[in-house]
Design brief:
Layout (H helix, E strand, L loop, with lengths): L1 H11 L4 E3 L13 E2 L9 E4 L5 E5 L16 E5 L4 E4 L11 E9 L7 E9 L2 E8 L4 E7 L5 E9 L5 E9 L2 E6 L2 E3 L1 E5 L20 E3 L10 E10 L5 H10 L18
Antiparallel strand pairs: 1-17, 2-3, 3-6, 4-5, 5-17, 6-16, 7-12, 7-17, 8-9, 8-16, 9-10, 10-11, 11-15, 12-13, 13-14
Length: 266
Amino acid sequence: MAITNFVNAVMADGPVGYWRLGEPTDSSGGPWITKDASGKGNDGNVIGGFPEITFGQPGFRGGIISRTPGGDTAALFNGTKGRIIVLNSISLNPSPHLTMEAIVRWDGPNTYNQRILEKSSYPGLAQYSLQILPDGHIQVELRTGDDTSATAQSNARVVQGVWRHIAATYEGSNIQIYINGGSDSQTLTTPATGTLSTKQPTPANLIESGVGIGNETQRDRPFNGLIDEVALYPTALSGPQILAHYESQFLRLVPKPRPVPKRPRK
């Protein structure tokens, strides 16, 4: 029941995109579409097949062992050119607040700042982004209302080869990073001011200003490792909400004791 509890916790907080990445690999090497479980219709297009992206891998909390309808397996990105592109839409332009969330297993550095999730304003300019730097620090990059690119880095580092629940929120001028449900003190490398900028969809910018999972939509900033349960919210979730998401993956139903049948009287 752990995966069901986690999904319920995510859905209760109203995501505008929820990519569980649990689709099984088919005979053609796909899937070529990853479903958006939020109900907003923001399905992802898989660009690059095996071995750039390998689906059906054991996700967090064992994955394959406890698969439920919809899957709780993960996608393995090999750090080269694979990516999932979600076309730009109105719902993917939240403002003024934002939360990004994912469960990842980082398998080590390449030559890039690796993207877990990024929506571009223009090629090479993030509207919002959740990254892992070559030294293992988490980095958040945002474009705010005064057209400033704001960045923040975690103090803690992600451990290679170990699953981590990562979330980042933006509210007003505050960027907050969470690791395994706990608030991490971060360093603001460029201060954030104002509301989160938007880049509304037009026929010309559906890919350019779309959301990339495991990479950017156009430039190569590929992730090396497993990505699972990616979610995007139009609000800044509170610390207790994010902790509840993290802890929900460990919850189990406690079976009710069976009643002892009464013996007939002699």
